[in-house]
Design a protein that fits this description.
Elements (H helix, E strand, L loop, with lengths): L1 E4 L6 H10 L4 E4 L2 H6 L2 E4 L5 H10 L3 H10 L4 E4 L1 H5 L3 E2 L4 E2 L6 E5 L12 E6 L1 E2 L15 E6 L1 E5 L5 E6 L3 E8 L2 E4 L7 H14 L5
Parallel strand pairs: 1-2, 1-3, 3-4, 4-14, 5-7
Antiparallel strand pairs: 5-6, 7-11, 8-10, 9-12, 12-13, 13-14
Length: 209
């Protein structure tokens, strides 16, 4: 079973619908027992970083997620804000994150604000750095995915970056560290390619070490 973590932020139904299309048992949940017994986790999210961290703690999800990911090494996919919450720190709210991988989340610093409006919204190309990464399996070099964000993570170790995107600046569009993976774009809004990436998560990420 895949647990889609409900911490009060994110378009959870869109994510669930993708898994229903794949005929995969996935559930939107904040039930601690369900999360503890899940085979894989999805940490979605849209909105403000500090509010996301606050909600994780208030809903008592902080401890169970850390146990699942850091101790039990359950595969997890963070989407958009969910990916950012996995980092050390964000400028958005001057707030510490889950610290699952070493990265700071920063706001776009773009000079040409007429050409590159913030938030970055719409379709854009990925530049795949690690085609052998489980999530990137089967994709061409520059697939298009859908983005909506004003902030992005800057990993301390660039080897974690599996793809980048150009939007006035080159930024990390996806990361993988062991069984933890995150994407800044929205696979649930990215039509067929997004569905394929979620299929990759289901079939491949569990064997990554």
């Amino acid at each position: 079973m895949i647990a889609i973590i409900d911490y009060g932020m994110g378009n959870l139904r869109s994510v669930l619908k993708k898994f229903e299309n794949l005929k995969i048992d996935a559930r939107i949940t904040n039930d601690l027992n369900e999360i503890s017994n899940a085979d894989k986790l999805i940490l979605p999210g849209v909105g403000h970083f500090a509010n996301g961290i606050k909600n994780l703690k208030e809903k008592k999800l902080w401890e169970v997620l850390n146990e699942k990911v850091l101790i039990k090494r359950t595969p997890v996919l963070g989407i958009c804000l969910g990916m950012q919450l996995m980092a050390d720190y964000s400028e958005e709210g001057n707030c510490e994150g889950l610290k699952w991988f070493d990265a700071d989340v920063i706001k776009f610093r773009i000079k040409d604000k007429l050409k590159f409006k913030v938030p970055h919204m719409g379709w854009n190309q990925l530049h795949i750095r690690h085609p052998s990464d489980p999530l990137m399996k089967g994709f061409e070099a520059n697939p298009d995915f859908y983005f909506v964000h004003s902030y992005y993570p800057v990993p301390e170790d660039p080897s974690f970056i599996t793809s980048t995107c150009d939007y006035g600046v080159e930024f990390a569009a996806s990361v993988t560290k062991g069984r933890m993976s995150g994407v800044q774009f929205h696979p649930e809004k990215s039509q067929a390619l997004g569905l394929e990436m979620l299929r990759n998560f289901i079939s491949s990420l569990a064997s990554n070490t």
